[in-house]
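User: Sequence in, structure out. Go.
Assistant: Echoing your sequence, followed by the C-alpha cells.
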Amino acid sequence: MQVLVVKDITKYQQSQEVLPILDNARRQQSRTLLNLATSKTFQTGTLNAVFQEITEAVAQTLLVSRVSVWLYNEARSGIECIDLYNLNTDEHTFGQSLSAMNYPKYFQALAEERCIAVNDVIHDKRTQELFATYLSLFNVMSLLSTPIWVEGRLLGILCYEHCAEVRDWNVDEEYFAGAIADFLSLAIEARERHAAQEALQKSEAQCRAIFERSSVGIGLIDIKAQIVDVNPALCQMLGYSREELFGKCLIDYIFQTKEDLDNYQKLFVDICTDIQQLDKTKYVEVERRLIHKNGNLVWVRLSVSVMPGFDGETELLLVIVKDITECKQTELQLRTSQAAAEAGSRAKSEFLSTMSHELRTPLNAIMGLSQLLQQEIAGSLNEKQKEYISCIYGSGEHLLSLINDILDLSKVEVGKEEICLMPIVVADLCNYVLSSVRDLAIEKQLILTSEIDTSADICIADERRIKQMLLNLLTNAIKFTSTGEVSLTVKKVPKGMIFTISDTGIGIEASQFQFLFEPFKQLDSKLNRQYEGTGLGLALTRKLARLHGGDVTVTSTVGVGSQFTLFLPDQEI
C-alpha cells in the first residue's frame, strides 16, 4: 500500500512570485535614494527645486498618484502645501492648507507617530475627518504620511496619496518614505544653515562698513584700556595711524592736568565695573580732552559700553568718540554772551531805576506847583492860563505814570520786587477795578460787564499788584475798542483762578503775539498806530503775574476782538 502526501504550496508559490517584484521595488527605491543623494539640485538648487525633484522621483518610484510636501505655518495652527506633484498630469501645484483645529486626530498622529500608514482612509480613525472635506475630492483611498523633523522641531510632512483603490503599504515602502523625509530634513537644515551664514556674513560686512566709514570715532579696547582696533575717524582725531595706535593704552592719549582730580589710570577699569553693575544695555558717558599727535587738545565725548563674550564675561569695551570741540567753543561763546547780556540787562534795569527816581523828584515839583496855580492861591488866572496849566498838569501826570511803570518793571527784572500775599475778596476787587475804568468806558459809549463764578470768592495775591494787572488789561481793552463791549469774567479752576478780559476791539494778528509782552514794543499794525502807549503795561502785567507763579495769555481775531486771561495759582500764606 502506498501513501500519497499532498501539500498545499499555493502561498509559497505566490510568495516566490512576489519576491522578484519586491526585489525589483527595493532596487528601484535604492536607485532613487542614490540619485537624490548625488543630485546637483541638493547642492546648488533652491529649496522649491529640491521639493519638486523629490516629489517627482518618489511618485514615479512608488507609483503614487499624488506626492506633496506640507510645512507648518508660523503660528503652528496648520500646515500649508509647498509642492504637490500629480503623477497622472505631470503637474506641480501648491497653496492648499489644512487647519489643526479642523483635523485634531490627524495632527495628533503626526506629532506622535514616526509614520502614518493608512490603507483605508475611510475607516481609519486618524483620517476619517479628512475624507469628507479633502481626500474624497481627489478620490484618495490610501495615505502614507511621514513627519519632517529638523533639529527636534516637527517642521512638516511628506504625504503620499494613492487614488481610486485601496493600497496596502508594505514595510519597505514605509522605510523608503522615512528615508525620503530624512532627505527633506537635511535639505531644509542645509538651507537654513546656509541662510544663517549668509545673514551673518552680510551683518559682519555691514558692521565693518559702519566701523570703517563712520564719521564718529570708534575704538575697541580690552579691560586694561589697551587698544585692539580703531576706525579711521578716531585715527584722524588723534593724528596717528591704526598701526601706531594698536596695543597702546588709550588713557595715555587723555589730557591730564594738576587740577584734574580723576585717576585716569583707573578710568576704564571703573567704567567697566560700573557697567557690570548696571544692565548690559547701559553705557557710561564722559567728556575728556584727547591729545592730538601735533600737541593740540581735542574735546570729545566718550561713550563706553561692554561687549560681553560667549561666556557672558566682559572681553572688550566699545568706545564711541565724538568730537565736541566746536560745541565746546560755541558753548563758551554762549556763556560769555549770556553773561554779557545779563550784565547789560542788570545795568539797564539799574539805570532805569536810578533815572526813574531822579525824574520823579522834579516831576513831583512840576505837578505840585501846577496844582497850586490851578487853585489860584498865588493869584487869579485867565482862561488861557488855566488851559496851559491844566495841560502841564495832565502831561506831568502821564509822565509820572510812565516813570512808575518803568520803575516797577526794572524792580521785577533785577529781582528786587517782592509781593505781599493776602486773601482778597474777589467781588470787592472786581468792583474796584470796574469803577476805576467805568468813566473811560462811558466816554467811548462802551458796555462794561462782569461775571463772577460763585465759587470764586477769595483769591490769594498781592492786592496792589493784582489791581494794577487788572487795570492795565481793562484799560487796554477799552483803549482798543471803539464800539461794542468790554467784559471781566472770573472763574475758579482746580489749581487756581482765572480772570478773563474780553473786548470787541480791533484784534491782533497771531504773528504779532510774540511782541505783545515785550517792553517798549509797539505792534507793527496800521490799526493801532493811532493809539498812544509805550508797551510797558502788558510787559509789566505778565512779569507781575509770573512773580505770583501765574501767567497772562492771549487769543485774538483781527476785526472781532481779543481775550486776555490772567491765571493766578492757589497759594498758601
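User: And one key feature?
Assistant: Residues 325-374 form the longest helix (50 residues).
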